[in-house]
Amino acid sequence: MTDAGLITVQNAVKNYTLTKDDVTGGSVAIDKANATITVDDGTFGYDGTSHSIPDGNVTVTGAVSDDQLAYNLTNNARTDAGSQTVGIELTAGSLVNSNYNITTTDTAQLTITPASTTGNENASVKTDNQSITYGDATPTLSVTVGSDLTTTDAGLTNADYTIANAQYTNDGKYLAAGSYTVTLNASGIAKLEAVNPNYKIDAVQTGTITVAPKQIKVTAGSDSKVYGTSDPTLDSNYDHSQLVGNDDQLDYAVSRAAGEDVGSYFETITVGDNANYAIVPVAGRFTITPKGTNPGDVNTTVTVNNASSSYGESAPDFSITVGSDLNNPGNLTNADFTFTNKATGEVVAGVPTNVGNYDVSLNDSGKAKVAVANPNYKFNDDSFISGTYTINDVITHSEITRTRTIHYTGAGVRTLVT
């Protein structure tokens, strides 16, 4: 007891004199207060930086007056997506803590949620465009990702992509020609998220698969006919081995330029409905050759017209008559004819002038003119029929001298008549 305390007691018991020796000491017991420390969960979105549950999430109950319990939060830092339990560690040797029975709850969860890829260029996912030709195998599909993502070990296969409204031929073996939208599907997204756990892949850009029609060259034939006959079935050809799978034919038509005269005409390919093929047409040539004339065919006979004159007269203009299928050239001159003396068999130079009968036929220049006027025909020599040119004898004058009469006849021959 202190001196002050002893005086207080002495004043209360005045009949006794008290000394410190008369005071027996005692003891006072102070029990510890009960306190509880709890921590609330903390959740943050992944942003590449470390996050911790802040002190504001800690609640202390049972502390007396302004006492500050001493503690630390353990396992309280996380960067990558996921969760971990945050613990409470009491500070050893704390005088304040010694006045308390402290209960802690170690169930707080520090959670980092995956970041959305929407609008994040560095975490973008773009399905790649692909281009093939009809008949090619479906290409290996792929994606291109932003710099913060990876495809390593994702194990993506074509089954992880969806081709929208895909059209196939040959029992599903080949994609038909056209343009198709392709995108990473749910299984592909799951695989990609597995190797990129810090991101929720919620935005995937689509790509395009372009299947170009297969080019095949189709060549029109080199067909022909003789003038005046019907057209044959027009021919064409292409390499059938270029057809894909069990495709068996192309759709097209062959035609030729109009015309029936001797000459060369284009044969062309008109493309039909070939959705999976691009026909490359190559023109051909259709040829109409001259029709040969036949001896005795009056429609294609060229006949030299007969002609006559009297001795001393100017030679007539020689002409021809052509069959109904032919054209008369109209430009023949006497130089286009050959004259042969029927009596002697001799060919006369130029047009004969002496009395006699002459075979008249077209010479090479005359035949050439007829051929030019009739290009649709190839003339047989026997289709040219000769005519006859007759120069008749005449009495040019009579002279009577005494008892003699002399007749002058053609070719200067004198006949004495007595």
Whole-angstrom Rg:
63 Å
Stretches where pLDDT falls below 50 for ≥5 residues?
A: 398-402, 410-418
Number of strands: 37
Number of helical segments?
A: 3
pLDDT average, as an integer? Answer: 92
Shape: rod-shaped
| CATH class membership of the largest domain | Alpha Beta
Termini, distance in Å? Answer: 219 Å
Biggest sheet: strand arrangement = 27-34-31-29-30
β-strand amount:
35-45%
State the domain count: 4
Structural class: mainly beta
CATH topology annotation of the largest domain: Ribosomal Protein L9, domain 2
Q: Note the main sheet.
A: 5 strands, mixed
Oligomer: single chain
Helix content: under 10%
Explained architecture:
The structure is a single chain. Helix content is 7%, strand content 39%. By secondary structure, the protein is mainly beta. The protein folds into four domains: 33-113, Immunoglobulin-like, CATH 2.60.40; 121-212, Ribosomal Protein L9, domain 2; 214-289, Sandwich (Immunoglobulin-like); 298-392, Ribosomal Protein L9, domain 2, CATH 3.10.430. The strands form twelve sheets. Strands 27-34-31-29-30 form a five-stranded mixed sheet. A four-stranded mixed sheet has the order 2-7-5-4, with no helix packed on it.
